[in-house]
Amino acid sequence: MIERMAIDPEVEESPNFLGGLYNLVTWKPKVAEHEYLRNMAPKVHEMAPDFTLPLLGGGEFTLSSLRGRPVMIEFGSVT
Amino acid sequence: MEQLAKKFAGKAHFIFVYVREAHPGEAYPPHQYDEQKMLHAQSFKKRLNIERPILVDSLYGKIHRIYGGVSNMSWIVGHTGHVAFRAAWTVAADIEAAVEEAIEVRELRRSGKSFSVYYREMTGLRPVRDEVRKAGQQFLGGKVAEQQFDDARSARLEANNEPGDAKK
Hints:
The complex is a heterodimer of chains A (about 80) and B (about 170). In chain A, strand 1 and strand 2 form a beta hairpin. Chain A is built from one helix and five strands; from the N terminus they run E-E-H-E-E-E. Chain A is α+β, with helices and mostly antiparallel strands and about 80 residues long. The mean pLDDT of chain A is about 85. In chain A, strands 1-2 form a two-stranded antiparallel sheet. Chain A has a two-stranded antiparallel sheet with strand order 3-4. By secondary structure, chain B is α+β, with helices and mostly antiparallel strands. Chain B has one domain: 3-Layer(aba) Sandwich (Glutaredoxin), CATH 3.40.30. Chain B has six helices and four strands, in the order H-E-H-E-H-E-E-H-H-H. Chain B has helices at about 1-5, 35-45, 60-65, 90-110, 130-135, 145-160; strands at about 15-20, 55, 75, 85. In chain B, strand 3 and strand 4 form a beta hairpin. The mean pLDDT of chain B is about 90. The chains are: A alpha+beta (about 80), B alpha+beta (about 170). At the A-B interface, helix 1 and strand 5 of A face strand 1, helix 2, strand 2, helix 3 and strand 3 of B. Strand 5 (about 70-75) of chain A pairs parallel with strand 1 of chain B.
């Protein structure tokens, strides 16, 4: 069982994030997000929270299924 | 990242998590429903020839938020499931060095050799958007997204009394 970080209660399915909409209508400077990453997200040496997400093309993917080798995770979008 | 994924094939996994649009515009508007986010992810895969597995986060970014919520951040999880690296931006040279080290840690542990690790943090430099533009990289969100970016940057430079060629 992978531990999950104690994280801000705002981290749930909500349209809002850090005082605005999660799905940005316009780009905005990233100061708040960077502070959030530094202070609220899992830190180096801590267990990475496990997750299962749909895989583009079909099926699902679970992070812990790759245990045994390093995993590089890039977050992003086309824009 | 695609080149690095190939370089480290068999030694490390590389995956991509599709999250909110960082620069929404007329070409790729903000996500309003799951299917739209999936379509954007398909477009991303096709336009940029992405071969890594692409996972699509929930509409409101549940996993993205858990991991920090920065638009193009990068993480490396070691072979034991512990965080080995995290960064608010994705820079190939940083990733290459960190993945090589994560592989080395795995091999050392499995060989039973004695070693120790230490904690470190550092900041990094990345090119500003104007340099990216000069290099020919398109702003894929569209003209609206590009204008919004310029306006926000100009406002920030003015507010901070910083020099910058985006201030027109």
